[in-house]
Amino acid sequence: MAIRDEDVLPIPNRPMNRLEGTYLSESFKGIGTTLRHFFTSFGQGRTSRTFQYPEVRREQMPVERGGLHAPNFRGVHRLNRDEAGRVKCVACMMCPTICPAKCIHIDAAESPWDDREKYPKKFEIDELRCIFCGMCEEACPVDAIELTTEYDVVGLTRQEMIFDKEKLLSVFDATIGKKPM
Ligand code: SF4
Ligand code: SF4
Question: Cis (ω within 30 of 0) for the bond into 62?
Fold first, then answer.
């Protein structure tokens, strides 16, 4: 849909004053930040973020934001199973509809089970296109799709990073102990 001219809100740049135009204060601020990180990253200093990965892995993801308990790390997806071990997804198409990156592709089919009408015959997520916004997880009415805390998923080809249903279910099997539903 084309955007109408009257819907566009122009936001003019504020002109810099003479001091700002020299970029000196911002440059000194940047150098200060660099030096602070340089001196504190040798030990377990307050700002140290350095890990000797992959020998040292970060197992505890950040759960604090602005002093609040806010577990917000979003890693690779998983497709959850129900109590009978079947894929929980009912192919409602909410997640591919809401996904801003358009990286979820589902082929819905008539369900072989009596307790639902449809199931995903094919379910794929392109993990390289995903922006890990978490909207698919929010939209799912049956808690079938979730983002886990797994972050070190790699592949040598683009195709390997398109996770199909079996792979997404295997992520569930591997992570259910770490992140219960
Ligand atoms: S996390 Fe966001 S971008 Fe990634 S699949 Fe879900 S809705 Fe799409
Ligand atoms: S929102 Fe949930 S139930 Fe609907 S298609 Fe996506 S994963 Fe399946």
Answer: no
